[in-house]
Each structure stands twice: as structure tokens, then as C-alpha cells.
TrEMBL record:
Keywords: Membrane, Transmembrane, Transmembrane helix. The keyword Protein biosynthesis does not apply. InterPro entries: ABA4-like (IPR025461). The chain crosses the membrane at residues 6-24, 36-56, 76-98, 110-131. This is DUF4281 domain-containing protein.
Length: 143
């Protein structure tokens, strides 16, 4: 397998998904295409890579930092790990977007949170939780 082609292809597909999530209308067909289509394809690619390469790495595993480092020395597992990030971060981004829509947040407010989630995953999720908690506290204080 040509990992030097798979890596940028997966990255470009995820980038396109983030652009759609941030800029396109969030109609059900769009969100389902992202979740079932793109994220599903990334997840399937991840699964294939893991099943083909993960168990071939001698000395690799999740029991220690050295074992994880050994795993990621294998290009197949390294690209699988990257695709894992791409799929999970985009899934979390779709969840944040739908929750923010439900809460009535303007898309201009959502965009920076989604960009941070795209770039730094958990930091974007943390930012979303902080903003949601702040909104809840302000709403309770006004009541």
C-alpha cells in the first residue's frame, strides 16, 4: 500500500469535510453524508489498516510508551493513527455543530470552535463545553 498517497488523500478528504461542516447549510443529507459517508469511509480505512498492520509490529502495543512508539514506527500503523484522529475529530465536530445549532448559536460563533476542534481536537471540545456552561450559567442567572 502506498502510504505516501493515502496520507494526503485522507487529510484532504477530512479537510473538505470540515469546510462543508463549517460553511455549508446543515441539512440532514449533508450531516448524514459527513457522518455515514466521509467519517464512515475514514473509519473503514482505519479498520483495514489496523487489521492488516497492527498485529505485525513486533514489540508494539499499548502497554508502555516504548510499545506505542514501536507501533508508530510502522507506516501502516502511523497512517492508521492519523486517520483515527481525522475521523474522531470530524465526528466530534459534527456533534458540536449539531449541539450548537440546537442551542441557537450563530454560525460565526461556532466557526472558531470548529476550527480549533479541527486543529487541536480536545481543546475545541473543551472550548465548546466552557461556552455551553457559560451560556447555561448566564441563562440561570437571568431567570
Amino acid at each position: 500500500m502506498d502510504f505516501t498517497q493515502l496520507f494526503p488523500s485522507a487529510s484532504s478528504a477530512a479537510m473538505l469535510g470540515w469546510l462543508v461542516l463549517i460553511l455549508a447549510p446543515r441539512r440532514p443529507i449533508v450531516m448524514q453524508s459527513l457522518r455515514l459517508g466521509l467519517i464512515g469511509l475514514l473509519s473503514l480505512t482505519y479498520a483495514v489498516l489496523i487489521f492488516v498492520y497492527f498485529f505485525r509490529v513486533e514489540g508494539g502495543g499499548f502497554g508502555s510508551l516504548a510499545e506505542v512508539r514501536t507501533l508508530f514506527l510502522n507506516d501502516g500503523v502511523l497512517v492508521a493513527g492519523w486517520i483515527h484522529y481525522l475521523a474522531f475529530d470530524l465526528f466530534v465536530g459534527t456533534w458540536i455543530a449539531l449541539e450548537a445549532d440546537r442551542l441557537g448559536w450563530n454560525r460565526v460563533v461556532q466557526a472558531p470552535i470548529l476550527v480549533v476542534t479541527f486543529m487541536f481536537g480536545p481543546i475545541g471540545l473543551l472550548l465548546f463545553f466552557i461556552m455551553r456552561a457559560s451560556q447555561s450559567a448566564l441563562t440561570t442567572a437571568k431567570a
